[in-house]
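Retro notes, item 3 of 5
We never archived the inputs for the WQD complex last cycle. Fixing that now. Sequence and ligand:
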Amino acid sequence: METIIVTGGAGYIGSHTIIELLNKTIFQIVSIDNFSNSSPDSYSRISALTTRPFETIQVDLCDHVLLNQKLSYYSNIIGIIHFAAFKSVSDSISDPIKYYHNNINSLNNILDFAKQQNVLNFIFSSSCSVYGNSKDLPVTENSPLQKAESPYGHTKQISEEIISFFCKTNPSFKTVLLRYFNPVGAHPSGKNGEFPINIPNNLVPIITQTAIGKNSLTVFGNDYNTRDGSCIRDYIHVCDIADAHLKALNYLIQHHEKKQCSLFNLGTGNGVSVLEAIKSFEKITNQKLHYKIGERRTGDVIAIYANNELAKTELNWIPQYNIDDMMLSAWKWENHLEEQNTK
Ligand code: WQD
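Structure as it came back at the time:
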């Protein structure tokens, strides 16, 4: 059976993508995860939302020998979707070496495996943070990359370069680099979502945890040169991101003659400020959110949002969810977690 390897499959975006792959394709799915930023519970949530089995491997992608040993049992691997990486902008600033070691070595090892096993289709989880503080808004895939504002963003810039050079020496290898903007929200069922192992760094889980009484929200700066003083981002529903991966896989397999290395922005094209995101949450929950205004956070870009026309035309991908849908799904998930914790 044709097999797809999903690294980081127990993670937030990986688990949502596996759900779509199991429900909408016939590929055998093998998830690789070392649970450094996820939990095996993620696999139970996937199983509860799908009807097909999938395989799982627990290994650190930085362990080259063990990775190849564990993957040697699989043949007919027609594609790899590489999610596995550390992904927090703020965390990368406090521990840069952890990010350079993990994100770069894991990519090198999975690419080496792809070469050894002649896997020809590769989807890479990149990020809008490669653009840095772009003046070119909305950013297109051809917008110049500014200096990364964080080690996290820098690892994604380096990773894109590594893949590009790898393509040059492996002409049959085809890859799609997906530059995610800000993935947020949860599965519409409310039964899968972002599951921060530690205290979350990113905005939406902190908003929902604050609303449920488990956290407190500080808005990191309201004195930026934006319409309301808070930073602007392009929040994109995690299920829209998952759908884009299936369309990217189809693009690679069906149109193998296309460019060897294609880049796509995955954003809605709408910039939303932190204060506007809070207002959306208050609207859909009909409750006031308590927060305070604090200092700016090091590493934050002021504003970034996508021109997503290329993904629309080339991948036939259209984002389905707006900011209110994202907040509603995130809130439903937070309440599901609360119910589970109180059982
Ligand atoms: C968003 C905004 C904060 C927390 C994320 C991912 C990264 C990449 C890009 C995919 C910023 C503000 C946050 C808080 C706040 N995605 N904020 N108070 O930094 O844009 O990066 O998207 O690759 O992986 O981390 O996301 O949610 O941390 O911040 O005011 O308590 O919310 O200042 O303006 P970020 P974020």
